[in-house]
Amino acid sequence: MVDMSLFKMSKGKEQIDIQEAYNIWNLARARYQSIETVLLLRNFIHDRDFHLIAGRFIMHWRRVQDKYEAEAKKFFVSLPQR
Fold first, then answer.
1. For the chain, which has fewer Cβ within 10 Å, the N-terminal or C-terminal residue?
2. Per-residue CA distances from 48 to 26, 43, 61 (Å)
3. How confident is the model over 42-71, as pLDDT tens digits?
4. 17 and 23 Cβ atoms separated by less than 8 Å
């Protein structure tokens, strides 16, 4: 007989289902696209302050992107190419 409890942590490897894997993949893809778009549009920005703000957006989004990549690596989810 197997003891099952909602209050005990499982001793095995943590797993995710296909929907969660797709969500991680889709979030990473969207973040890559956002970064590439801002990098492209930043070439046309002439206002120095707005250029700095766009750079901060890119830095923030890259930190978030690193978190998505770490989660994907943890669960062996292959991410789209940059």
1. N
2. 32, 12, 20
3. 999 999 999 999 999 999 999 999 999 999
4. no
